[in-house]
Amino acid sequence: MIIVKPAQSKHQHDITRLHAISWQSVYTGLLDEKYLSEDVFQERGAIWEQRFSQPSENQRIYVALENENLLGFICIYLDQDSEQGTLIENLHVDKDTKGKGVGKALLQHATRIIQTEASHSGAYLEVLSQNISAQHFYDYMGGKPIISQQWQAPEGSFVDELVYGWTSTAVILER
Description:
The chain has a seven-stranded mixed beta sheet, with helices on both faces. It has helices at residues 12-26, 33-53, 102-117, 132-140, 170-173; strands at 3-6, 59-66, 69-81, 85-93, 123-128, 144-152, 158-166. It has a single domain, classed as 3-Layer(aba) Sandwich (Aminopeptidase), CATH 3.40.630. The chain is globular. It is of the alpha+beta class. The protein has five helices and seven strands; from the N terminus they run E-H-H-E-E-E-H-E-H-E-E-H. The longest helix has 21 residues, at 33-53. Pfam families: Acetyltransf_1. One of its GO terms (molecular function) is acyltransferase activity, transferring groups other than amino-acyl groups.
């Protein structure tokens, strides 16, 4: 049974690991090979160290667990943008559990938090243009591509991405 709950510092290492492995899998061929093979764990580790040690007031991190094993995580920033609403900064699911409802459970949990804690009902996220499977998931969850832009990756490369948005996150709970 999948349980979604607030992340604790004890989850930091597993979140970092899953984030880095996810990037290695999805971003191969898009980001610098040396970065993905050597630097991504340290760089993502620094991000998560900061998020856990000095969280911003609007930051929320949730984990999906089964028997205390991390299946996925989501990190959101409530009311990050006055027009778009809450930023879904990260949503990653272990590749062995994709297609089993973990991403949906995390996104729906975050939606309930947005509806109770945010003043804006919308949400948005950024997804690489080449990450077609993630786009299909966001389409299914009622998201719409609203902006095409470039993202400067931590190692300096520029990659095409889409901004997906929900004018109201209520549609996410209907899926």
